[in-house]
Amino acid sequence: MSKPNETSHPGTHKNTVDETPQTLGNPPHIPVLPEEVLTNGITPKYLEAHGNKLEVTIKPYADKSYDHVALKFGTPPNSYTVNARLSSLDADTVVIFTTDNIRGIGNGLHPLSYELFKLADNSTSPRSPSQEVKVKGM
User: Fold this and answer.
1) Domain 29-135 has CATH 2.70.170.10
2) What is the pLDDT of residues 40-83, one digit of tens each?
3) What is the SS3 assignment for the chain?
């Protein structure tokens, strides 16, 4: 949001001031997972019961200039990144990993984190804190 600065010189160009709250490099929120996944991990039984997908929720971030999210699950070479458009300025964004995505990551304890980015200039936010997720039986 911008508004013109007042100037004491009539007819001169008016500057604008960016009033977007600054995040000062603060990382985004931790990715939110279903309680069942936090407690028991991701299993074939869980995925089958939930349409062969894992839904991860991204909470809104204070700096509203970001329009996309890159959610990374796993550690290279066994990792998978989903890029998605943020829902809106004040709504949660749900990002989906499929059974095939998770199978490719493999069994074990894996980090899940994300960064927000601006499609226009590809600038990014700091990376979110990692959420450790157990994958078993895949």
Assistant:
1) no
2) 999 999 999 999 999 999 998 877 788 899 999 999 999 999 99
3) CEEECCCCCCCCCCCEEECCCCCCCCCCCCCECCHHHHHHCECHHHHHHCCCEEEEEECCCCCCCCCEEEEEEEECCEEEEEEEECCECCECEEEEEEHHHHHHHCCEEEEEEEEEECCCCCCECCCCCCEEEEECCC
